[in-house]
Amino acid sequence: MEEALLRAVLFGTPILLASLGALLSERGGVVNLGVEGMMALAALAAFAVGLEAHPVLGVLAGVGVGSLLGLFLGVFAVSLRANQFVAGLALAALGLGASGLLGKRYEGVPLPNPLPEGVLAALALALAFGLHLLFFRTRFGLYLRSVGENPKAADLFGVSVDGVRYGALALGGGLIGMAGAYLSLAYRPSWTDGMTSGLGWVAIALVILAAWQPLRAVFGAYLFGLLFFLQFRLQGSVPIPSEAFAAMPYLLVILVLALSGRARAPKALGQPFDRGR
Amino acid sequence: MLKLENITKRFGSVVANRRITLEVAPGEVLALLGENGAGKTTLVSILYGLYAPDEGRILLEGKEVRIPSPKAAQRLGIALVPQHPELIEAHTVAENLALGLDLPAVFSRRALVRRLRALLEGHPLGVDLEAPVARLSAGEKQRVELLRALLNRPKVLILDEPTSVLTPKEAEALFQEIQRLKAVGLSVIFISHKLDEVLAIADRIAVLRAGEKVGEVLRQEADKDLLVRLMVGRSLAPPPKVPPPREEVILEVEDLLVPRHGFPVQGVSFSLRAGEVLGIAGVAGSGQAELVQALAGLRPFRGRIRFREGPWPRDPARLFALGVAHIPEERSMGVVEGMSVAENLALRTYRRFAPGGILNHRAMEKEAEALIGRYGIRTPSPRTPVRFLSGGNVQKVILARELQVSPRLLLAMHPTYGVDVGASEEVHGRILDLVQAGSAVLLVSEDLDEILSLSHRVAALYHGRFVGPIPREEADRERLGRMMTEGRV
Q: Are residues B284 and B318 in the same domain?
């Protein structure tokens, strides 16, 4: 039982971090569907730096790469006012492909001094609380929520809509990058192509499940963590094909999304802002 | 205080403002009067830093200024209360007001509320600072906009059509507030297309038409006739006479009931003859919308309806084919805003342009051009998306589409709501043409003058029940008002 809870938290942590990252930009009105690709590239960068230099620097590298990718998405989704869904999907594909290509020489190399999972898990939990305070107690949080709800009004009162959205993408990208770093430096201290295994998509779904509230994301993430743990543990001991178990968390995601239709999304979510119109 | 010199603004080939020169002194209320599409809002947007003028200069206290953004406008002391409240519904009043402040990076809600109270000392608040905006009435939302505008202690306050969302009582309160602000030396620019309120509040009135300033008069020298002439470019014709109805019964409604929570329509019966207009008044939410929607085939109902002694299909497309046209209560329900004028005009009849399922755009646009000419729709081209048209012109698009096949029955709800004087005169003219040709009209409106000038018989809806109808000759504003609010004839 205790082990189950511990594993749930440890497995839920990358989902939590990535989910917080996506949640941050969605609060500002920008959908980030690139999470999976951003995580993969950040995981690779973190691993490479962690191997060549030090794992702590690796975390910083992951965060940095995540931030840069967030800003990169911003160029299309904010400045060029491209369709956010298309831009995000493209980034997801690009990130996965590029990480596979660039990561070939790290494939199968073990990391001699991995980071303790617990420290990063505690940090993730603290970040969830921090995000809650950021949203409701700071100027940036107020601007962020305003921009996500009604960018026209925010603009009218002198808030730089594009600036806030870039900021949200950079910060959120950093969190997503940290999720990637956690995977390759702590959780499975190694690099394998496709090691994100769909966690980025679960994280995006979790944003909706959490109704865009960071604290609710904590519970959701740990719940998914528990499900993944049960999937490993029950495999083989119950006469059900393992594929069915493997599909379970994703089925749950779909079920949750179908049932959580009532959660109120930020009103301007997914809408590019253009002052002229 | 504030002076505009020769301001010109073009959008492509359209000139929205042409060489406009205006001035407003401290403690003065300058009214900017003009029809929809006359260029009032463009001018305001320039003053508030949303658009840059192509030509001309702006002087504030004698010094030339540039206003590249709303932030810059605020810093210069220019504040705006926009036409439609631009508030963030999910936030509290305090959070909305905070957007206009220089906030510390980290703050607590309580400190914010305290600071706002101190800043707004002396202004009647009228709203709970900690209430979510989504729960406020339209009048309270505007109050929030006004408070936000006042937070930065502006020198010039711009009010863009402030009464369009207000009840008469709320408008009265706003006017008192304007008088108070004027007394402390604020310059107020008051934008409106309503003559009565301009005459009630302004010290000086500048009239815009088609992007140009066509006149400027002091309040003492102004009267309604003069302002209408300036605004429309001609005097309005006296309301036309409605010919008497014919014998043939077009529509018979018996015990119509809308089976929904609260039964918004509770057993309404009436008949309508060819060439007859039945006007229906009522306080908003008395069942008018549900009645019209039920008749238009948009809502299930119980009861019996006969149309020209035949059955009544409960389906919008089949109703239209039978000769029932519908002007919905909100313009946005009547058009697809992102689609072109031509496409919107063809929404009812597109099959004609699509032999074999493929749309012939050229034929559709040619037909649209004919309708645009006949109904005087002001649009750059048939391909222009409807959302770029002014409210009056959108209404003409709806009218043109619905009336093009000479319907036998027109269900018209608020046909001139938010439409300027000139355009509403045209809309009324079209409806009367239809009546003259022998069609029946069910006219639902909140504008009692409109009902009284067009109808043969008038009724009121009171809590979902019919009061009346009574002949037009026996009705006046007071009696109709009683029917609406007391439920008796």
A: yes
